[in-house]
Design goal:
Radius of gyration: 24 Å
Shape: globular
Low-confidence stretches: 289-301
Number of helices: 15
Structural class: alpha+beta
Helix content: 40-55%
Order of helices and strands: EHHEEHHHHEHEEEEEHHHHHEEEHHEH
Strand content: 15-25%
Strand order of the largest sheet: 4-5-7-6
Distance between the termini: 47 Å
Number of strands: 13
């Protein structure tokens, strides 16, 4: 897949080093040392042999017409390139365990603004560093390792916990909520959030925390108290990175009383399922932004406008938060408390 090809294969096909170098500005993408991907069916005479390695036409069709700038700004594309690079890197050592952000990439854990370029691995006896890989001497308990094809990777829970020190609590909290959500969803084979959540969804998530998160935390040699505190605050209800950031901010502010994915009705019946509802103050937090409207079109924008009018008519205050509003706790608190001053009474209050 992805038209990956090793340097030795190019050499065996009679493609010179100069041609490989020239093609990197045209139809060949260097992923890491000795590994490339053919991105275009190139018609340049000197590059025709490279085109013979194309076996994934969808990959070349994806690149057709796209500029380098567009690809650099495509978050999903860049994450996919990292996944391909990590999976196909050839200089792992026996007993290497892929960890940190590299493990998060393989698990599909969403990370915001992660600029890591090296592959992160742990090894029980060796430290080393190169332009492409950082190896840290550290023993990962067998219970916290999983096999992914020919690679050994830290488990999703262990990966999320290790991100606390590597990326900070907010990023790790979002990662751990994603892991908890996936672990909970696995217990419901026919689950589809569009049709609502099972009644025991939160109970099942609590069981996952006790059976999977707590043991992993107790196997850690440092940071157990912080990890345990964060685990106790996790919810499986966040449907996006932005919602997890919002939930994390509530915890930092000790602002209680919000329910996630709450169904709101009026005399006409169902209005909407909202991201966060604070029933005591009749406040709704909608984590959104103009980006989603551009993706789904004006029909959804009109529908959500109608929903908002009904919510306002039912006595609710709706606070819309864009992603940038979630990144600074001072800006976040200033915005929600200025629009819903009544929320201040629930800072540090008991209950959730």
């Amino acid at each position: 897949m992805y038209n990956t090809v090793y340097r030795e294969e190019l050499s065996a096909a009679g493609i010179s080093s100069k041609t490989v170098s020239d093609a990197q500005n045209c139809c060949l993408l260097r992923l890491c040392r000795g590994l490339y991907s053919v991105t275009r069916d190139c018609k340049v005479t000197g590059h025709r042999r490279i085109a013979s390695f194309i076996d994934d036409r969808q990959w070349t069709e994806f690149h057709a017409g796209k500029t380098e700038s567009e690809l650099l700004d495509d978050f999903d594309y860049q994450s996919l390139l990292r996944t391909i690079r990590i999976r196909n890197y050839r200089w792992y050592r026996p007993d290497d365990v892929i960890a940190g952000t590299s493990a998060a990439v393989l698990h599909g854990i969403p990370l915001y603004d992660d600029k890591s370029t090296r592959i992160s691995v742990k090894h029980p006896k060796s430290n080393s560093r190169s332009n492409e890989l950082v190896r840290l001497r550290c023993t990962v308990p067998a219970e916290d390792q999983i096999q992914m094809g020919h690679l050994v990777v830290t488990s999703p829970v262990r990966t999320g916990l290790e991100l606390i020190r590597k990326l900070g609590q907010r990023e790790a909290y979002a990662a751990l909520e994603w892991v908890l959500r996936q672990a909970t969803i696995e217990q419901y084979p026919s689950f589809n959030p569009k049709f609502g959540y099972p009644k025991d969804f939160l109970i099942e998530a609590r069981q996952r925390i006790e059976e999977e998160f707590h043991p992993a935390i107790l196997r850690m040699t440092t940071g157990q108290a912080t990890s345990m505190r964060m685990a106790e605050a996790l919810s499986p209800m966040s449907e996006s990175l932005a919602e997890s950031y919002c939930s994390f901010n509530f915890n930092v502010l000790k602002l209680k009383g919000f329910t996630q994915q709450a169904v709101v009705t009026d005399s006409r019946g169902f209005i909407s399922r909202v991201d966060f509802l604070h029933e005591a103050t009749r406040t709704i937090i909608a984590v959104d932004g103009s980006g989603k409207y551009a993706l789904v079109g004006s029909s959804l924008l009109r529908r959500e406008g109608e929903q908002q009018n009904r919510l306002l008519g039912a006595g609710y205050k709706v606070i819309h938060l864009a992603f940038r509003d979630l990144l600074n706790i001072s800006d976040f608190s200033a915005k929600i408390f200025s629009q819903a001053p009544g929320l201040k009474r629930f800072v540090g209050s008991r209950g959730r």
